[in-house]
Write a structure and sequence with these properties.
heterodimer; A: mainly beta; Neuraminidase; four-stranded antiparallel sheet; B: mainly beta; 3% helix
Chain lengths: 348, 347
């Protein structure tokens, strides 16, 4: 703390400011800029329907787009591959209170992660509940004060504001948990606990986390964790043992691994919720990387305008040249067409 | 003490747990998709499930949390649970009690011999009798007018007066859990998680008495979790806090207890001449690696067999909170953890 107070450097001030303003300029240099276009009016909402904070977005194998968003109540919408509204899933469902993530597994089941109820739900492609992980705390006899004490001990089957879900090729389940635990949990495909890395306590060592905010797995079963408040991504093996750290691409908001024979890693240095003057100049871009951390290029920038990003919270990268991003602060989902062949190096 | 204990247990009719005695496994199946829900209706925690004489299925479920109004003279809360009816094939029929003042945290639903539908809500502290058409026919208890801000440290609304669990003689409840009737129609309410007693009313809703208080002695309860009455009028109470079933006569005199079946979160006694008791040793909601099995017992407490375990697959159970056993070999179970109802066929 003394070091923070004594410092006159802007970076130190930012680090002292707490998570609401957490940001970091990526240290990677000379990264090629990947040209892209944002598809105009991609999602077509029925008249009278609105998206709220579009924190979760995912596609299934048919290209249907699922948006899990914070409206007056948290809601899950399905659109077809052309962005036409299909239906709402989970209307009034007990496991929805404050959206955080939606992902679609290899069988096109739809998984939601809700940080208000602490419930992770597996819906069938038809939208029926197949499995529930975690439990919503039972209603209290009155509004409860915000808990400010130290994190309570992590439990095998209970989450504390979980953030995201991923699967390995065997169907084992990985959950990043979350804002008041600091761990990754692995379950078998039937929901039985197998392992965890990290704990309720935040930490900086390999295998420790400080706000694990998103998670993805590759075809070899490696696990990629956006370790947000540590400003890094951690790579874990299938048994959650630490393998590598990528800390040169900024804050570590969200992560996506594309499908197909050559998988890519996408990582977003999203601008924070709450920006000081100049913040947008050094944040907001998304990186395209090889799984080993080699940076291939970057695209996008912080902006409220169409085509720019306002706190990208989640990416779908099923097709590595068609990225769908969900943004918190513009209540917006954009479909981006990347043109990697046209990428050219720029000096920054 | 070592010499006294067996004698004491024998006197009380206790059947001690014997690790050496294997309990037979009962083979069973779970029907796929027993309930077909409309696309815009989702079960939450399926706290209660029951059937009527026609085989219609009633599910009382926690569909969301109560919402509060900000900025009023006090803080008012409402909503959070719904009651659904399905026909015997599992087809959705209707919702009963939509937007009822009495629905906040669903706890149980039971059907009496006249096919009236009784629901127990552990936050409004109501036991509500709906007639078969779905109209309110009788109310027991009362909802607290407003909620306390911040919430009291112990989760009870303390509207019944006196310290929670003190066994107050009152017709108001604190987090009641279950309801049952004897042959005369007298009503027995397990009350519950805030109180620790059984309250008895006559069939017209006149409060007669209550018995039991917080404690572990015979006749007291850790929590009064579940209740059922046999054809002779004996009252079986699942004491979750003390992991036992206590048996009383209809006046509340303690008769015996069964300590061999774990945490009796759900109880059911079959109708008919040869009654048996089903009891769920429900796993805690935060763990599926322990307990979860359901026991089939004779009314004397001897175990006939058991089936199932905790888990998330079909034929596994996630904190069973309700058992319907109108048919001895075709059960419905309502689960907290898995937010579902399973229809089980025992072989």
């Amino acid at each position: 703390m003394r070091r923070c107070l004594a410092s006159l450097f802007a970076v130190a001030l930012i680090l002292c400011a707490g998570p609401a303003l957490a940001q970091r300029k990526a240290t990677a240099e000379n990264v090629p800029e990947i040209p892209y276009e944002s598809v105009p009016d991609f999602l077509k909402l029925p008249a009278g329907e609105y998206l709220g904070e579009a924190v979760g977005v995912a596609t299934n194998s048919k290209g249907h787009v699922f948006v899990y968003h914070r409206s007056a109540v948290t809601r899950l919408f399905e659109f077809d591959q052309n962005g036409n509204f299909v239906r709402e899933i989970g209307k009034g469902y007990y496991g929805f209170e404050f959206a955080h993530s939606v992902r679609v597994d290899a069988e096109d089941n739809i998984w939601t992660v809700d940080e208000g109820t602490n419930v992770v739900t597996k819906f069938s492609p038809e939208g029926k509940v197949l499995m529930v992980l975690g439990r919503r705390p039972l209603a209290e006899a009155g509004p409860i004060a915000t808990y400010t004490g130290p994190n309570l001990p992590a439990q095998k089957y209970i989450f504390c504001r979980p953030t995201d879900v991923a699967w390995d090729p065997q169907g084992d389940i990985f959950i990043s948990d979350g804002y008041c635990n600091n761990r990754v949990v692995k379950y078998d495909r039937n929901g039985r606990f197998l392992a965890q890395e990290g704990s309720e306590k935040a930490g900086k060592d390999p295998g420790q986390f400080n706000l694990p905010h998103a998670i993805a797995a590759d075809a070899q079963g490696n696990v990629y964790v956006a370790d947000r408040s540590n400003f890094r991504y951690q790579v874990l093996d299938n048994n959650l043992k630490p393998k590598a750290v990528y800390d040169n691409v900024g804050v570590g908001w969200t992560v996506c691994v594309s499908q197909g024979p050559h998988q890519y890693l996408f990582a977003s240095n999203s601008n924070p919720n709450g920006n000081r003057p100049g913040t947008w100049a050094i944040t907001g871009e998304i990186y395209k990387m090889e799984l080993d951390g080699t940076i291939l290029g970057r695209f996008g920038h912080a902006s409220k305008e169409f085509g720019g990003f306002q706190v990208v919270h989640m990416m779908d990268c099923r097709n590595p040249n068609e990225i769908i991003v969900g943004e918190i602060e513009s209540w917006r989902v954009q479909k981006l067409i990347l043109k990697p062949q046209a990428a050219k190096a720029v000096i920054r | 003490m070592r010499y006294v204990l067996p004698l004491l247990l024998a006197t009380l009719g206790v059947h001690p747990v014997s690790a050496q005695t294997p309990v037979p496994e009962i083979a069973f199946d779970s029907a796929p998709n027993p309930l077909s829900l409309p696309d815009d209706i989702y079960l939450g925690e399926a706290a209660g499930v029951a059937t009527n004489s026609k085989g219609d299925i009633f599910v009382f479920t926690r569909t969301g949390h109560p919402t509060v109004s900000l900025g009023t003279s006090r803080t008012f809360a409402h909503g959070g649970s719904r009651l659904f009816e399905f026909d015997k094939t599992g087809k959705f029929v209707r919702e009963i009690g939509a937007n009822s003042y009495g629905f906040m945290v669903a706890q149980q639903v039971r059907i009496d011999p006249q096919d009236n539908i009784w629901v127990v809500d552990q936050m409004t502290n109501y036991v509500i009798k709906f007639d078969p058409q779905g109209r309110v026919a009788m109310l027991l208890g009362r909802k607290a007018e407003a909620v306390t801000v911040p919430a009291p440290p112990q989760r009870t609304q303390a509207i019944a007066g006196g310290a929670p669990g003190a066994g107050e003689q009152t017709d108001l409840f604190e987090r009641p859990t279950d309801v049952a009737w004897d042959a005369a129609g007298d009503i027995y309410v397990a009350d519950g998680l805030g109180n620790a007693r059984v309250a008895k009313f006559n069939k017209n809703g006149v409060f007669i008495k209550s018995w039991g208080a917080k404690g572990s002695e015979p006749g007291n309860f850790g929590t009064a979790r579940s209740i059922a009455v046999d054809a002779r009028g004996n009252v079986y109470v699942g004491d979750g806090g003390n992991r036992r079933i206590e048996v009383f006569d209809g006046d509340g005199n303690f008769k015996t207890q069964y300590t061999n079946v774990g945490n009796p979160q759900a109880l059911c006694i079959t109708p008919g001449p040869n009654q048996v008791l089903f009891v769920s040793n429900s796993n805690p909601p935060n763990d599926i690696d322990t307990a979860g099995e359901i026991y089939k017992m004779r009314l004397d407490g001897s175990v006939i067999g058991k089936f199932g375990r905790a888990g998330k697959l079909p034929k596994e159970f996630g904190t069973v909170n309700a058992i319907d056993c109108r048919s001895e070999n075709a059960l419905y179970v309502g689960e907290i953890g898995n937010m579902r109802v399973q229809k089980l066929t025992l072989h």
